[in-house]
Amino acid sequence: MTPVHFAFSSAFTLGLMGLVFHRTHLLSALLCLEGMMLSLFIALSVWTLQLSATNFAISPMLLLAFSACEASAGLALLVATARTHGSDRLQTFNLLQC
């Protein structure tokens, strides 16, 4: 495994571990998801450049577009829950109550 691949793998793993273990606020969960998507975008871009294949050149841009949509939906949910519940702490949410 090259150092570049190790860096992207460790960045994705750190984002995943942050998402799993530090779930106190919704904003921290969204930041971990964005870090994971950023590491996937950079890894996919490097993979496309290493292969020199024009067939996969659109893949990083599609991933970036979906990442932007995910970020906007996450921020909209953050604002909506902060207005209704008063904070973004995940312990105050009750999934059984509408």
TrEMBL record:
It catalyses: a ubiquinone + NADH + 5 H(+)(in) = a ubiquinol + NAD(+) + 4 H(+)(out). Pfam families: Oxidored_q2. InterPro entries: NADH_UbQ_OxRdtase_chain4L/K, NUOK/Mnh_C1-like. The chain crosses the membrane at residues 6-22, 29-49, 61-80. GO terms for biological process: ATP synthesis coupled electron transport. GO terms for cellular component: mitochondrial inner membrane; NADH dehydrogenase complex; respiratory chain complex; transmembrane transporter complex. Its EC number is 7.1.1.2. Its main location: mitochondrion. It comes from the Eukaryota. It is a multi-pass membrane protein. GO terms for molecular function: NADH dehydrogenase (ubiquinone) activity; oxidoreductase activity, acting on NAD(P)H. Keywords: Electron transport, Membrane, Mitochondrion, Mitochondrion inner membrane, NAD, Respiratory chain, Translocase, Transmembrane, Transmembrane helix, Transport, Ubiquinone. It is found in: Mitochondrion inner membrane; Mitochondrion membrane. Coiled coil: none annotated. Core subunit of the mitochondrial membrane respiratory chain NADH dehydrogenase (Complex I) which catalyzes electron transfer from NADH through the respiratory chain, using ubiquinone as an electron acceptor. Part of the enzyme membrane arm which is embedded in the lipid bilayer and involved in proton translocation. Belongs to the complex I subunit 4L family. This is NADH-ubiquinone oxidoreductase chain 4L.
